[in-house]
Every structure is written in structure tokens, then in C-alpha cells.
Amino acid sequence: TDNQCNATATLIVDEISAAPSAMSAQTDDPTCLGDEDGSIQIQEVTGGTAPYLFSVNGSPFSNQTFYNQLGAGDYEIIVQDAMGCEHGINLNLAEANDLMVNAGPDIEAQLGDEVNLNAIVNIPEEELVSVLWTSLDSLSCIQCLQTSVAPSNTGLYEISITDINGCTATDEVYVFVDKRKDIYMPTAFSPNGDDKNDVFFIQSGSDAVKIRSFLVFDRWGEIAFQVYNAPTNNPDYGWNGTYRGELYNSAVFTWFAEVEFLDGEVVLFKGDVALMR
After folding, report:
1. Are 182 and 220 in contact (CB under 8 A)?
2. DSSP assignment string, 10-77
3. b/e per residue, 107-122, with b = 16+ CB within 10 A?
4. Do 227 and 237 form a contact (C-beta atoms < 8 A)?
5. Which regions in the chain score pLDDT beneath 70?
6. End-to-end CA distance of the chain
7. Dist CA 121 CA 125 (whole Å)
8. Are 115 and 137 in contact (CB under 8 A)?
9. What is the pLDDT of residues 103-149, one digit of tens each?
10. Neighbours of 188 (CB within 10 A)
């Protein structure tokens, strides 16, 4: 200055700490497909000035370091130190395997048929801890992937499985039961001893329980043959074309049959048959 005076001052500049440079975290993926039981645990921050705040996928900053009830997907974790400096990392929680069971296509069956149910899973069977079929009819094995049933009615069969992780999957199959009552009776037979169509007898599917009555009448209405409470599909309970040891001449005969089926219904069948010599 003009007075030749001097002045001095001391300025102290604090050293600014480096921003956060690294962050580590432990992840736990969701257990099953679609579950939201995954988690992220922030473990350590390198650099910067404590205390630290954290944000997950744009959430407000907080001192929270453990995040749970997370589904599969990508997560951006940002750490902010006391000076407002930030550092971010990207993490991924992997989607769990899609546990699946396939009970197979719907099935059509006749009353009395045995039906095989074959379920297929997309993991090794040794990784299953539970298999359970539910149905109205009794299955040969309710805790097996492969089982069988003789269905009495049309119905739904459901299978549920659980793997070693506690994941579950279900599927179902419909079994349609055809309850039409049918028997097969030839329109002609030739009892000539050649072992070909020698006996006139009732033939049926597995849905028939027994023949309650089977009668054959000649043209004058006389009984030529009769049998009661007999099995189907057995020529020993059929007519060989004779009456009192004598073979009838060629003629047309009328027959009636009462057949009992598995569901308890008794059906009357009738028709004509030609005896040919």
C-alpha cells in the first residue's frame, strides 16, 4: 500500500476423500419360479466417507443394507457417501427352474377298461420328495408317477409334485368313460363240428359282469336253449344248435339276453340268429 504496510493470511484446505470405488454384496436367488423370496445383503464399501446410504433400483437412499422379498431380475445398487459421492453396481437374481409335471392327454375308455396314467416331470425323479394323485376312483398307486385305474365314471385325475426345494407343480387329465352297453352276437352260426362258429354265445367287453339269462326260441315259441347266471365270452355257456341231443334243421331262431354290467345296470338285448347246416 501507499503506507508500505504488509498483511498475510493463512488458508487451510482440507483434503477431500476419494469417492466410493467398490461395493460387495451377497445375493440369494428366488427358490421357485415366480417366487419373491430372493434377497440382497450389502457387505462392504471401499473408499468414500462413511456413513453410507444405499438405493436399490431408484428407491430413496437409506442406511438399509439388507433387502428381501425380491423376485428374479436385474437390480442396480447405488452407494452414496457422506460427501454425496456415489458408486453403483448391477446385480442379477436368477429365475428358478420352472418345475413342471405333465399328466398326459385326456383319455377315452370303455367302462371296465384299465387305464394307465403316466406323468412326466422335467427334473430327475430322485429330486422329488412328494408325488400325489387325487381322484374319485381308486388308483393302483397314488404316490407314483405311473399308475393305473379302472374308472367307473368320467372324472378328473390330478397329480401334484414337490421337489427338494419345496417347489410344487400340478397337472390334470380327464378320463372319459363310455358307458354304452354293447354285446356282440353273430347273426348266424353253423354247428357242423369244424370248430368254426359252432357255438352261439354272448360276447362282450370287460364292462359286462354276467349273463343273468340267455334264452333261444324256435319259430313256434318253444325254448330251444336257456342258461342263467353265466359268464360272457365263454362258449361253454352257449348254444350248440341241439335240443335234447338232436341237432335242429336250418332255421331262424329268436334270442333274448339280460346282461348285468359293472355299474349295476341290467340291459335286455334281443335279436335273431340263423342256424345253418
Report:
1. no
2. ----PPPPPPEEEEEEEEE--SSTT---EEEEEEEEEES-SS-EEEETTPPPBS--EEEEE-SEEEEE
3. bebebbbebebebebe
4. yes
5. 1-17
6. 154
7. 8
8. no
9. 999 999 988 889 999 999 999 999 999 999 999 888 999 999 999 99
10. 13
C-alpha pair distances (Å), 168 with each of 97, 120, 128, 141: 11, 14, 10, 20
Cis peptide before 60 (omega within 30 of 0): no
**Residue listed under C-alpha cell 476423500:** 17
Nearest to 269 by CA among 200, 209, 184, 199: 184
What does the block give as the cell for 67? 433387502
Cell for 264? 349295476
Residue type, 29: D
CA 184 from chain center: how many Å?
Answer: 36
